Amino acid sequence: MEMLRIGADFDRYEELLDVILAAFAFMDGRIDPPSSAHRLTPASLRQKAAQEIAFAAVEKGQLVGCIFLKPEEATLYIGKLAVHPAAQGKGIGRLMLARAEATARELGLACLRLETRVELTENHRMFAAWGFGRAAENRHAGYDRTTSIEMRKPLD
Questions:
Q1: pLDDT-based confidence at 156, cuts 50/70/90?
Q2: Which neighbouring-strand residues pair with 13?
Q3: Burial of 29 by CB count in 10 Å (0-12 exposed, 13-18 middle, 19+ buried)?
Q4: 107-130 b/e with 16+ CB inside 10 Å = b?
Q5: For 86-134, what is each residue's pLDDT tens digit?
Q6: CA distance 156 to 141
Q7: What ranges in the chain are assigned the alpha helix state H?
């Protein structure tokens, strides 16, 4: 398993989009509003990678996962954490979160932050097992109910 920083020389955005869409496909029909992953394109991923800190997980030459990190005032926001379904259960997500923790520490940030949809209770349990705690309930624009759960992990 290799973790690559997605930089200016990265040219596998079509493949990266395929990984994200495959990883997020289980949400289709379960969450409302639908995942923002459906609005991604190779060009928007390139732009996102230029604005954020992104890593790709590569196994035997194939992209199998990614994580996008956005520094905020006191936290490092984790977005588009994705592991291809065929590669899940191998600890790739945990490796990417370890990379996020290391990045936060390098930047002097004291906490990791992420959001997961309210319907995805299995994600809530997984992130809790990885040390994240529920911090807030949020709603998407135009919704009068909670649509996402914010979770945080303080770093020592």
A1: confident
A2: none
A3: exposed
A4: eebebbbbbbbbebeebbeebeee
A5: 999 999 999 999 999 999 999 999 999 999 999 999 999 999 999 999 9
A6: 34
A7: 13-24, 42-51, 92-106, 121-129
